[in-house]
Every structure is written in C-alpha cells, then in structure tokens.
Amino acid sequence: MPIVRVALDIPLATLFDYTVADDIAVAIGQRVIVPFGRRQMVGVVMECVATTDVAPERIKPVVQVLHDSAPLSAELLDLLRFCSDYYRYPIGQTVLSALPTRLRSDKPVISKPILSYRLTASGVALNLDDFPKRKVVQRRILAKLAEQPCNLAQLKALSATVGGQLKALETEGWVESVALTPSHISSVRGEQKHTFDNAHTLTGEQQLAVDAITQAQGYGCFLLHGITGSGKTEVYVHLMHHVLQHGGQVLLLVPEINLTPQLENYFHSRFPDVNLISLHSGLSEGERLHNWQQAQNGVAQIVLGTRLSVFAELSKLALIIVDEEHDSSFKQQDGLRYSARDVAIFRANQRGVAIVLGSATPSLESYHSAQSGRYRMLKLTGRALAEARLPTVRCVNINHTVMHHGISENLLREIGQRIARNEQSLLFINRRGYAPVLMCTSCGWLSDCKNCAGKMVVHLKDQRLRCHHCGYQIRVPHACPDCGNADLHPVGSGTQRVEEVLQERFPDARILRVDRDSTRNKRAWQAMREQIHANEVDILVGTQMLAKGHDFPALTLVGVLNPDSALYSSDFRAAEKLFAQLMQVAGRAGRADKPGEVLIQTEFPDHPLFQALQSHDFEGWAASQLAERQMAGFPPFMFQAMLRAEGMQENEVYRYLHDARTAAVALQHPVEILGVVPASMPRRANHIRAQLLIQAASRKALQQFLRAWQPALDALPAQKLRCGLDIDPLEF
Ligand code: ADP
Ligand code: ZN
Ligand code: ZN
C-alpha cells in the first residue's frame, strides 16, 4: 500500500505517515483528512513514499482525500519547507499557517464561482438618460457594463455598495451573471490585452528604472530607492503593465492593511479591466479563500496584500514588488516569525523572476546589499511633479521655548498661520491616550500596570487607565491608592491631550485625531481620509498610522512632538526606525504645489540624525550608521537569532535559557553566544520574559549552528513556558 507523509498543525518538527488504499488516487499537495490521536485533522500531503519507519500495526489509513480545492504546487511546498527550516518552525505548522482558514478546516470548502456580470437584452435597451439620476451607483454599473462584462472585483472599484445595487439590477432583469471557469478566463485573456491608463510620461529616472527591471533576465533583486513623491508608484504601474501584457501575475506586498483599499482603488483606476484582488487579514474567511483561489488558478492578475500574501499560490507569478520594504510590519512577531520581504526574495529567486524593493528610506540591510552589488540599486532623486519641492526641516529646542503640554509656542504659531491660509497641519506623536502615566503629587505613586512592567495610560475621554501591553484597565481613581491624596496629575502628553491643547488655543479649528482608538471602527479611517481630502480638517493629530503613504495635498506643516526617546534607546535599530519614520511624515508635507515645512521638537537639535534630516541626506546618514554597525558588530554585518522564553515562574524561564545556553556553548560552533538577559519588556501580562542572543558572521554559520542546537532545545523541559527562536529578530 502506498504511504503518504502528511504535514499537520502539530508543534513537532516532523511529518506524519499514513497509508492510502490502492484504489484511491492521491497527489502531492493535496489536502487529506487523517486520524490523529482521538481526533481527525486536515493535513497536506508532502511526499508519497514506499516505506515507513512506523510499525505496520500502528500506521493508520487516510480517512479522506479532499478534492474541493486544487493541490498546492510543488513550488509552494518547497517555499514552505525552506521557511520551516530557516525560521526553525515545525513543518506542519508552517504549511498549515500559510493556508486560508477555510482550507485548514475539515469541512468541505464550497468554492464560489467567479461571476461575470453583463447586461441583459432589456438592460441593453435601457436609455441611461431616462434612468433616475439619484440612483448614482446603478447608473455607474450600467454604464460600465455597457462597455464590457465585468466581475465583482472590477465593479467594486465603482462603489463600496456595489453588491446590493447589483442585486437590485438583477432583480429588475437588466443585469445577469454567468459563472466563469479558469479555462474560460484564460481563453478570454488569451490575447493579453488590457486597458492601461498611461497618465504620465515617465521621468528620465523612472524610465531607467522601468527599463532595468523589465530587461532583466530571470531572478534579480532591485532596490528602488526613491525620495517621497519621486513616483515609485508610477514605476510599479509601468512594471505591472509590462507583466500583464505578457500574461504574468504581479504580487505587490504592502505593509499596512489600512493602505490596501486606497491602493486597490488606485490600481483599478489605472488598469480598469484587470482582475485585481487583495489578500489580508481584514477579509472574511470566504473572501480570503475566494481570492486565494483566484491567485492560485491565475485568474487574479494583480495580487495586492499584506505580509501573509507572500504565501499565496501564484501560478503565473512574474514579478514581486515590496513597497516600503523597510517597514517592520513585514516581520511576523509570533508563530512562524518570518520576514515577508526576505521570503519574497527567496520566492523570486526560486521562481527566477525580478523582485523590486521600494522605499524612500531603505532598511540598512537592503541598502548594504545594494551597495555591495548583491542587489541592483535604482535611484529616483527628484520629485516627479516639478513644482513639488522637498519640505524644509527645522528643529525647535524645547529647552529654549515655552511649552504647552508638549507643544511648543513656535509650533502653535505656525499652526495658526496655516489655519489662516486654509492649509492643513499634522502633529505627529507616538503615544495615544491622554497622558502616558498618572502620578500622585504627594507620594510619587505611578499608575503601574499590575500585570506588566509598564505604566497604565490615562484615557480621559472614557475616564480610564489602560495598559497598552496587556489591555488591563480600571477607572481613573479619585484619590491616590497609596496615600489618599486627591491631587493626581497626568504626566506627559498623548494624542488626546494634544487635541485638547489645540482645541483650547484654536477654538474654531476643526481637529481630527487619528490613532488606534479613533479608528477602531473599520470604516472610520476611510471616512476620515475623505474628510481630510475634502479639506474639512484643519489640524490632524496622529500616531504613526498617519505617516504611511497617504497623500494629503493641502497639508503644508508637520510637527513632530516627542522623537527623542529613540535617540537613547537600547534597541540598536531605534535610530534607523526614527529616521525612516520622520522622513516619511516629512514626506506628507508639501506634496502638491505648496511648499511644506517640518518642525521637530527636540532637546538635541544638533544630533546627527536631525542634521541629516534637515539636509535630506539619507546617503550620509546610512553611511554613518553602517560604519557604526560594522564597528559594533551588528547587522547587516552580523546575523542574529534570538531564543525567547516567557512564563509565570521566573526561575523556570531563566533555567530554560541558561540550560539552552550551556548546550549552545558545548557545540563549539563559530558563533557568538551572548548572556541570558531580561526582555526589553521584562514582565507582560504576568509573564516573565527573557532572551538569549546568538550572532554569527554569516547566515550559513548561523544556520548550521541552529540546526545542531535544535535537538538540545527540543530535549529541554519547557511545558510551562512559551519559547521559540526568532531568526533575524527586529524586536529586542
Ligand atoms: P512615491 O510613491 O515615490 O512617494 P508617488 O508615486 O506617490 O510617489 O508620486 C507622487 C506624485 O507624482 C503623484 O501625484 C503621482 O501621480 C505623480 N507622478 C508620478 N510620476 C509622474 C510623472 N512621470 N509625471 C507626472 N507626475 C507623476
Ligand atoms: Zn500618593
Ligand atoms: Zn499590562
């Protein structure tokens, strides 16, 4: 009887063997239901073999082979094998975590057909001039379908409410739908023609970049280093056009789920009849499966997604683009701790296609690789719109000016001028809430979280103290819990307090706060963006959510309130992150024809980081940072792995890490094994957290060491601990 080796969602670094009856056909990559202990589980067939080490009386048969979805390709399975090995994560959990939830369940999946909508005869006969004017969306749909049949994804670009309106039109008998099969779609697309809105003539630099990438043969990794507003997106659009003409698929990875709807709309507007889908955790399970399958069978031509989409099956993949490649949200921080950017590079290499990493502030890793010739550097040094100038950056020394709860008088004056000119200002602050901590003026009591080594943040709007690490919250106390003093002071400023100060100073100004509290509702952020674009907002107060990729034409002033803590952080990447973040917020100012200005409030106006920002000198800054990293023996000159452990009992956590360290030392590999130390957040949600860092001069040396170390780690008692390896860690 043939034997299959199956990947299961079990935390063991092994496949599980089952027999298959001779008359059942089973292929590699197919999903199967198998018995496991007393349950049944869904797994993926990784190998078909003739023999097994499992004793004949213990091996069990496969219960069912699922045919409800196409098998995973050998290519995807190879990618997942690589990830499991590289990130030291069990193969079964790696494979299963890459699948949409629906494919992980043992219920059969019902794939929705992809419908194409078209006008019926009576729909064609309609005269749009007589159609009720107030049915705006229906009119738009009818006009669009009069040009050509469309699928739902294409129609969604017309309006968010298109689904209900389509139903109404179907009920009226004006529109009908037909199910498309993949073969039908590929034959429809046989001639590979699509409409392309070629809005702009490329600048010289853009053209050079497009040519270099489209002319590349096989694998090539390109770093597209373009200042904000230089037109990186336009380069992506032309690359997509090229790939679509040749019948290929494009995968575009973006860091932020909030950015996907606006990008989706944008690419739709440039490629009106191209099938573009998105993949991110905000989709319903059904939508995600549906989109995943369209990517798998090649119907989706452009796949736009957050990090998880790097594991989408893409049968015609011909180009990968990673936008804002430096962004740390490409790294998953639990479970399979992969970097979607790095996996994307592996994937492009495996497939022999080009990959483009785009950023205004590349990560030092990528920048170093481009400088050393492993990647190809492509630069966009000017803004695409000739009239759009780079913003002026100035520092305000907060020790030499009057401060109003975190906002300097200088900044308030500048904001006042913007309001008078009907322009927008953005205040960027890294803390949400009212104040980061509540203090007793009499005994010095601070609002510590009872579960964490952190403070509870004051949220005055709902009169709560809230821990941003574990979510624990209580009412703001009326008196000090220690001494009974009623005089409790919020110390420092968060977004809510800044909003309050501004409202006092500018009672007539329209102020909008954008942070995780104000955008909790899915649609809220979309509505806010529309408000900003309609110029219904004078002052924006926001956290890093606002820094990323949004284009607000009336914005001419950016104030940065509290950047200094990153300058003396123990995290060696803190300065790199701050520089990128400030470049990005600065890029929000003055994108259209109005010059922008950035005011940074700091105690250290002469710090090299702020100096480099003022002269827009990424190159100089990166060179000095790289020199420092090389001296100190940090990435990208060293390769790191972090063993993390957390648990309720301090001694158990530390014993585990010390034993792991002893085993590591005994291996005598050419790696540097640092000491066991507390994590930067040493206690979170009542768990003690500690870590052990390993460094090596090459990826290969590190990987060889990790492979040798694994059996020792597996043998350590760790039932009560949560522990795991983090390869190429970003958080310390
Ligand atoms: P980036 O992504 O590099 O920050 P964008 O792609 O958003 O920059 O481009 C900035 C602005 O310049 C956009 O409004 C875009 O439409 C415009 N733009 C880009 N390329 C061109 C071009 N070749 N000619 C004219 N305008 C352009
Ligand atoms: Zn007190
Ligand atoms: Zn807490």
What does this structure look like?
It is a single chain. By secondary structure, this protein is of the alpha/beta class. It is built from 22 helices and 33 strands. The strands form eight sheets. Strands 12-13-11-14-15-10-16 form a seven-stranded parallel beta sheet, sandwiched between helices. Strands 5-2-1-4-3-6 form a six-stranded mixed beta sheet. A hairpin with a 2-residue loop joins β3 (31-36) and β4. α9 (204-215) packs parallel to α10 (232-245). Bound molecules: adenosine-5'-diphosphate and zinc ion (2 copies). One zinc ion binds next to loops.
The secondary-structure class comes to: alpha/beta
Helix count, DSSP H or I runs of 4 or more residues: 22
**Which molecules other than protein and nucleic acid are bound?**
adenosine-5'-diphosphate, zinc ion
How many β-strands, per DSSP?
Answer: 33
The share of residues in helices is: 25-40%
Q: Quick one: biggest sheet? A: 7 strands, parallel
Shape: globular
Please give the order of strands in the largest beta sheet.
12-13-11-14-15-10-16
Low-confidence stretches: 186-191
Strand content: 15-25%
| Radius of gyration of CA atoms, rounded to a whole number | 28 Å
User: Distance N terminus to C terminus?
Assistant: 51 Å
What value does the average pLDDT take?
91
